[in-house]
Amino acid sequence: MIKSIADLPIEGKRVFLRVDLNVPLTPARGVADDSRIRASLPTIEHAIKRGARVVLASHLGRPKGPTPQLSLEPVAARLAELLEREVILTDEAVGDGARKVVADLRDGDVALLENLRFFPGEEANDDGFARQLAAYADVYVNDAFGTAHRAHASTVGMIAHVAVKGAGLLMMKEIEFLGRLLGPVDKPYLAVIGGAKVSDKIGVLENLLGRVDAFLIGGAMANTFLKAKGAGVGKSRVEEDKLALARAFLKKADDRKVEVLLPVDVVAAASLDAGEGQVVRADQVPGEAMALDIGPETARGFADRITRARTVFWNGPMGVFEKRPFAKGTVAVAEAVASCRGLTVVGGGDSVAAVNEVDVGAKITHISTGGGASLEFIEGRTLPGIAALEVEA
Question: Is 49 a catalytic residue?
Answer without folding.
Answer: no
